[in-house]
């Protein structure tokens, strides 16, 4: 029996890999205790209890990025957050801490170090966040999802993924997936999506070019996002959905994907060996471009700029790719060697090593 404290949250990119590891730890040893440390404001406040885990609360204390009143208050607030985590570690007798980034992780790393509890860091993005940069200084193990992530002593472990992705047999599921979406399993499918909220740039580009995709002999499965106001033309071969709760079936049907390049998206697509066209979201610190870099370097994906991605880009670049089945087949073969479905097991192996070294 072991007590694990998993820290992270804020966004799905932090919460989902945390929950994948939590589920596998619980399945491996139901007698062990798996606790989650998070904030009241993050996505974890809803998702963690829904999954059946106890959520221990720590104050949300953002790192200051400019000198202002909030920056002046940061040291005291951060010390308080560290003290909160130390109390959680003592009261629950946590034996190891695993951080996935986000606001909860930074105080968790320092609290674990002061309590002499080993901790492990997992970084999902190719460009690490501040919390994990801090934690990597003293971590017993550092796992990264992508090659080239600049964290010293790190090893590439991949991304902990959902069971429905890890266990997906795309070929065996294709007929079921085609029936689910009302598509023809015998005809190739282009899957376009931009995350749960959609991507305006992708939506506008394909709103002006979907006919060209169909004219190339392909079907189009377009997930627009729940906030989209695109009107479904209800054309044969073009299936539009605001939201899909069975992305595993969408992946089973996809012969090529056009999407953003969030860490989870790239990891899932790579793990499944699907060729892709990535259009990295231009806002932020450039991590989406870096997330796609290893797949692009391997020949499994191509990268197109967000700022110039239009219907003309689809016609000039994507549609010719659809007509080049030989190139798509080469991309698919390359994709099989880029990703991994064993990210969860790899992270757990790192946790086990940290525990053995501490005992």
UniProtKB/TrEMBL annotation:
The Glycosyl transferase family 28 C-terminal domain, residue ranges: 189-336
Residues covered by the Glycosyltransferase family 28 N-terminal domain: 5-142
GO terms assigned for molecular function: transferase activity
Amino acids binding UDP-N-acetyl-alpha-D-glucosamine: 11-13, 125, 162, 196, 244, 288
Leading EC class: transferase
Keyword Heme recorded: no
Positions of transmembrane segments: none
Record InterPro entries: GlcNAc_MurG (IPR006009), Glyco_trans_28_C (IPR007235), GlycoTrans_28_N (IPR004276)
Catalytic activity reported: di-trans,octa-cis-undecaprenyl diphospho-N-acetyl-alpha-D-muramoyl-L-alanyl-D-glutamyl-meso-2,6-diaminopimeloyl-D-alanyl-D-alanine + UDP-N-acetyl-alpha-D-glucosamine = di-trans,octa-cis-undecaprenyl diphospho-[N-acetyl-alpha-D-glucosaminyl-(1->4)]-N-acetyl-alpha-D-muramoyl-L-alanyl-D-glutamyl-meso-2,6-diaminopimeloyl-D-alanyl-D-alanine + UDP + H(+)
Entry EC number(s): 2.4.1.227
Homology family: Belongs to the glycosyltransferase 28 family. MurG subfamily.
Entry protein name: UDP-N-acetylglucosamine--N-acetylmuramyl-(pentapeptide) pyrophosphoryl-undecaprenol N-acetylglucosamine transferase
Organism: Microbacterium murale
Gene: murG
């Amino acid at each position: 029996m072991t007590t694990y404290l998993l820290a992270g949250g804020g966004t799905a990119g932090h919460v989902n890999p945390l929950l994948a590891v939590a589920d596998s730890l619980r399945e491996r040893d139901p007698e062990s205790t798996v606790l989650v440390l998070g904030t009241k404001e993050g996505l974890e406040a809803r998702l963690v209890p829904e999954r059946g885990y106890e959520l221990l609360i720590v104050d949300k204390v953002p790192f200051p990025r400019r000198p202002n009143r909030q920056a002046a208050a940061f040291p005291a607030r951060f010390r308080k957050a560290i003290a909160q985590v130390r109390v959680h570690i003592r009261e629950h007798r946590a034996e190891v801490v695993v951080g996935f980034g986000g606001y909860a992780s930074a105080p968790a790393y320092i609290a674990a170090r002061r309590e002499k509890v080993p901790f492990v860091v997992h970084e999902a993005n190719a460009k690490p966040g501040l919390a994990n940069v801090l934690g990597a200084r003293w971590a017993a193990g550092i796992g990264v999802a992508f090659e080239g992530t600049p964290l010293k002593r790190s090893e590439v472990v991949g991304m902990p993924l959902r069971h429905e992705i890890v266990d997906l047999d795309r070929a065996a599921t294709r007929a079921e997936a085609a029936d689910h979406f009302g598509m023809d399993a015998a005809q190739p499918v282009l899957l376009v999506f931009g995350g749960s909220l959609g991507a305006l740039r992708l939506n506008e580009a394909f709103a002006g070019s979907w006919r060209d995709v169909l004219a190339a002999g392909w079907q189009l499965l377009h997930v627009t996002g729940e906030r989209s106001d695109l009107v479904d033309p209800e054309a044969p071969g073009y299936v539009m959905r605001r939201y899909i709760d069975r992305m595993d079936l969408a992946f089973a049907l996809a012969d090529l994907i056009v999407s953003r390049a969030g860490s989870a998206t790239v990891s899932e697509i790579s793990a499944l060996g699907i060729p892709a066209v990535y259009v990295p979201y231009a806002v932020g610190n450039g991590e989406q471009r870096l997330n796609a870099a290893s797949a692009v370097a391997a020949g499994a994906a191509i990268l197109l700029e967000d700022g110039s991605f239009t219907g003309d880009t689809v016609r000039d670049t994507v549609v010719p790719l659809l007509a080049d089945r030989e190139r798509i087949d080469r991309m698919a073969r390359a994709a099989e060697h880029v990703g991994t479905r064993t990210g969860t097991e790899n992270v757990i192996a790192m946790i086990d090593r940290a525990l053995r070294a501490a005992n």
